[in-house]
Structure formats: C-alpha cells, structure tokens
Predict the structure.
Amino acid sequence: MAAFVAGACGARVTSSALRRAETAEAPSSARVSGASRWRRARMMATAAPAAPAPSTEVAANELFVAQSERDAKRAEAEKLPSVQLSEVDLQWVHVLSEGWAAPLKGFMREDEYLQTLHFNCIRQQDGSLVNQSVPIVLDVTAEKKKELEGSNAIALRDENGKAVAILRNPEFYVHNKEERCARMFGMTDARHPYAELIYNGGEFLMGGDIEVLDRITYDDGLDQYRQTPAELAEEYKKRGADAVFFFQLRNPIHNGHALLMTSTREELMKRGFKNPVLVVHQIGGKVKGDDVPLKERMLQNQAVLEEGVLDKESTILGIFPSPMLYAGPTEVQWHAKARMNAGCQFYIVGRDPAGMKHPATDEDMYDPWHGKKALTFAPGLEKLEILPFRVAAYDQTVGKMAFFDPSRAEDFLFISGTKMRKYAASGEEPPNGFMAPSAWKVLVDYYASKK
C-alpha cells in the first residue's frame, strides 16, 4: 500500500515504534547527509509541477490497433502460431496496451530486461533514462520456443482462446529464474507469491512489440473503474484539476488513510493550487490469497465516498491493472512511474509500500521506510514530487484517527491491516471512528460469506 498505519496492532505505541515514527517524520541534524540535502533540493526543484498532460498526449502511448485495421488484424491472428497467456500475462498485456509502462512497446527484449533487472531503468536512444524497475516479460517453455522459432508474428490468446494481441519479430532469451527473483525481491524463496509464478514459468523469455486488438475487459461489474491514462486525463480536465495526486493501495480504506488524503489536498491548496484532484487507485491484478479481493475493496471504497469521508467532487476511484509483485522499494518505483504516465504530479508513499512478511521468518521483507527513500533517489522520476507522509493512528482521547503525536504516545493505538482483517473475520467491531460504518459492513459481510 502506498500509505499505511504503522505499528503493532491493538497495542499502545512502544518506544521502538515511536522512534521509527519520529525517524520517518524528520531525520535529526546529526543524521543529515549529502544525500538528505540532495533529496531536499530535489523536492524544492519539483515544487511546481507542470499542469496535467492533455489526453491526446497520453493516448499516444497506447498500443491498440487502429479501429480501421482491427478486422484485418483479427483475421491475421487466426492464421498465426500462438501462445496462451496466463491470468498474469493478460494483466501485463492490459498494462502495456493502455500506456502505463510507456515507452515500452511490448514485452521486453533482452537488452531492456537486463537494464531493468540491474539498473531499474532503461536508456533511450536520445540518452535519457526512463524508470522501469520491474520486468514486464512473457515466459515460454523450451518446447513452445522450438515451435515458434522462425515466426515473424505470434498471436497472444487469453485463457478462453481469444486472440487479444499480435507480437511482432519475437526475440527469445534464457529465463534465469533465480537471478530474476534475487534482483527483484532480494531473496529466492519460492514461497514468495510472485516468485512462485516465476519458478513455475517457462525456461525462456519472449520479447517483442505488441499490437493489441481490443481493450482488455473483465465483465466483473468493475470495468467502469478501469480508466485508461487517457481517460483519466479527460476526467482531470472535466473536473478542472490543476494538480493531480495519487494514493495507491491494495487494502480497504480506513479513516487514517482518509485523513492523510484530505490533509494532502489541503496542503496543496495552501501552496496555491485551486482544485487538486485525488485518484484512489486500487491494485487490480493478481494479489496474494490473504488480501481482500478487488470486488470487496471497490465496494468498500465506494462506501467511504458515499459516507462523505472523502469528497466525491475531488476524488476519482480507479483500478490499476498491474498484478502485485510484493517487491518492496523496487516495486514502488513501478507504481510511481506508471502513475506518472497517467498524469500524476504528486505521489503519497508511506510505510512498507509493496511489502509483505518473509515466508520463512514472518518478519518484514523490507525496511518499512526504504520504499519512500528509494523514490526520492530513483532515476527517471525527477518530475514526480513525493509528498511527506504523516503517521496516523487511533487517538483514544477523541475517538477517531488522528496524526500521531509523540508527546502523548500513550494515547494512541496502532491498528495493523492484519488486526483489521481479524476484527472483520470475527465480527468484532473496531474502535468507533476507525472506519465508516457502511464501509466496515462490506468487510464483515465478505468474511462472513467465507465461513
């Protein structure tokens, strides 16, 4: 999640949690380094981003076949050798097709893959660097590679056999699975949910530009939330936005998240913006089994809006089609870069973005604050301003979520996502003021349906 409530669930704040929260807020003068000064200089340099890009400019990144050519391309696809896409493969086609990964034109060729894996960015022909921290690749078996070699074009089919894209001039290269996992996750344990997919994949990777025949849809009642970057740009214009900030998450919204989002809008207005627009963007691709499913997350988010916890006029609910990789600071760069392609100027990032517990130790895989720090250094993200994150927790003195005050730490409860899920699963009510009642009911009903 791009911003999260830190600390031990349901317990009073410990001295170690307090130190972590204070460290996250502002490093002491003794710890200020050249790198810290560079980060502050960069933030000052990005204090006044340009207006959101027009939709015509954003649409140029799309990989869809022109409407006038679609019938001919579909007919061509029926005659081509083909590869059947997995659920996650199709999600990556979705990502590529709409321009979230621009300037990529398809699944990575080897030179793009190696740069991504080792440098988290790709050098363009003009010498500039584009951030691309996670590989977007298509694996095939040795048997399938042998079948496809010599073909100049290959049809990509979904799990129902429908041709969704054509891949041109394929390039095959060895899929070193352990190296890929080590570089992406900092570990090679096959119990990691995305590492498991990698290890179960083919022995080769196949790169090439793609032509996408139709918009990817899911007919799950949520397609209206899956706005493309170009459609989002039109929405900004419609709402008269002069600033756009994103909040990415894979969990339900509680009132601490809402406090952070609303206070961010207030701060942007103090800086002179007239109408900052917030995009609440849920991960729409594959997530691990204990995460709340997308449908329930969107129902819960909509309930938050309906109760007025977030302002309807300045808030867009959306779905980001990428699968979740759980790659910590490496993945958070991808999340930020993709949103830049959708007109994002300001990005909220907090504790342990894209993190999870290590499958062997049940401890955090990544330092909870490294994701935020990595974004301030990441090449290719210089035009994106990383917004300050303030820790929110449940203030028992007022019965609601509030920003943590170290001077009265004993007044606060830090409620984790794990505890929140346990509350909902058991039917136990969280503290009053933790979440909008109708939004909480969505979670309770979901867990009750699983029993």
User: Anything to note?
Assistant: The first strand starts at residue 11 and ends at 12. The two ends are 27 Å apart (CA to CA). Residues 1-47 have pLDDT under 50 and may be disordered. The first helix runs from residue 15 to 25.
